[in-house]
Amino acid sequence: MALKVPADLEKEIDKRITHYPESKRSAVLPVLHEVQSHFGYISEDAVVWVAKKLELEPIRVLEVVTFYPGFRQKPVGKHHIRVCRTLSCAMAGSAELMEEFCKKAKIDRSKVSHHDPIAVSEDGQYSIEFAECLAGCGTGPVCMINDDFHEEVGTDKLEEILKNCD
Amino acid sequence: MAKVKYIAGKEPHAKEHRMIFRNVDREGWDTSLATYQKEGGYKQLAKALKMEPKAVQEEVKAAGLRGRGGAGFPTGVKWGFVPPNNTKPVYLICNADESEPGTFKDRYIIHQDPHQLIEGLIISAYAVGAHLAYIYIREEFPEGAQILETAIEEARKQKFLGKNVCGTGFELEIYVHRGAGAYICGEETGLIESLEGKRPYPRIKPPYFPAAMGLYLCPTIVNNVESLCHVKHIIDMGADAYGKLGTPRNTGTRILCVSGDVKKPGYYEIQVGKVTMGELINDMCGGMKEGRKLKAVIPGGSSSKILRADEKFTLKQGDKDVEIGIEDIPMDFDSLMACGSMAGSGGVIVIDDSRAISWVLNNLNTFYAHESCGQCTPCREGSAWMKKITDRIVSGNASPEDVDTLESVAYNIDGKTICAFGEACSWPTEAMVAKFRDELIGDTDGKNAKRPVSKETQEAAKNLKSLTT
Ligand SMILES: Cc1cc2nc3c(=O)[nH]c(=O)nc-3n(C[C@H](O)[C@H](O)[C@H](O)COP(=O)(O)O)c2cc1C
Ligand code: SF4
Ligand code: FES
Question: What is the pTM of this model?
């Protein structure tokens, strides 16, 4: 099934493409970002659509999608949580933070792997993954929920943070 | 200029010298162009545009500015590498990927003082003759990307950007380009590949030195966010006055990002080399946490070699060699290099005596195993092996010989790869094995109870029957 791209999204995409007067191919990342932020993930149809838009072979788009951890090929929860795993946050307690998040948001992480790092709650409300250093090491542990950045996230703050998501 | 007031609790320490971070966490400050201009914003641009581009370059060179992104390479010298007979377009890229663990300074500039960066960027573009510039920003700064785009729009409306910058005929556009969560996009040639819409596989140097063959194989200058901000202040102060900040060969200010086991982690802007490690940790950061002692410091981002609290270092002072301890190390490029490590990205990670080195190393090895781009066999395989071996050590499933294997894997990566990630991923292992060998060997028997081992690591270690599977 061909991807249905609303007119305003396509307009935004067309504008992004103009930022690369030398090479349309340079727009692969920005266009994928637009597509992912609208649809929630990059489907096979989306890959084909983006490739056509940028006059590329679909593999040129797919290889980008599969390389970058920031692009995903499956839907995530309504609220996607990224907990920083790296050293400074780990020292501040990010492993405990991850466990508490999973408990509170009812997420089972037992099946995650390198190639499939995201776990989603049964009701689809929440999903979670570890991220590498989010450049907030001075105020760890840190996490992102969708586009929002949270610092000094003690486990005692979780209830409130999750409540404020909705 | 108005006296600066800071948000309560965010006031600078007496040993700080706020220049780049003057407006960070400042009371009444915001990201608008109006606020920025109220205090002389974009005056330096006007000043620079009256100079010849070459003269701006010379000023930056004379100021002695060294790159704040990691390597500490002199910025003015790098700009001079654009071939003199070049006929192709020149590009300027601002590296806002900020992904070296322990580093969090560019975040504040982008989110709180975007016009400072944009002014520095425009001046730098003028100096190197670029008419198109990109800000490559990590994907995890979505708000930052928006703030920058808004600021660029404002600057364009005021004719600081566009076809006729400030009526001088100089033409420049800046666009924001968002990455997608890969550390290797911070490496300048990986960044360039990414900006070309590809996987960020770094290019081999030679021949692909960006200043000669960068974006679209045209001359390209890549500079860190903080470096570009300094350019504005060099134009403001003049090279001589700027060069008097800091110490000779290590001029200006720089932002140190402190994290880990100190009472007051955070950012501290110092005159380069005017503050020692001891002053930073004990005075500025309020010392170690209650009842804890310093065990080690990773002084310049996660890749920099660890320094032990009880190590002795030899520094040249004048013609004499003097022996100093960790707390006496001046926080500058040359001193940290002389101590066998580096000032790198300015990320100082402080480690106390409650931490097991095996756990610290395993955390970093997990990072590097995840972030290797996979092009070179030593790096791709080696980074994964180093993680597997430290998985075994932290979970108490290793043998003492594993520590030797670990070390040999690291030395088989270092110096044998396309990009400097090879060194970045092997230095932590090389240094920690060399400096904490006994502790690591002691940890192999599984009796050490103080290691907090995550479920993931335990699982990984259990599933690892042998190193060759
Ligand atoms: C693995 C790796 C990661 C890097 N990450 C960054 C980064 O996140 N930000 C940055 O400014 N420089 C980073 N660098 C350094 C850049 O390659 C480049 O040297 C720098 O942006 C140049 O800017 P400067 O001269 O202003 O320091 C990295 C280098 C390597 C090898
Ligand atoms: S050293 Fe590692 S990160 Fe750099 S190009 Fe080789 S495999 Fe990629
Ligand atoms: S280690 Fe978590 S933000 Fe840097």
Answer: 0.96
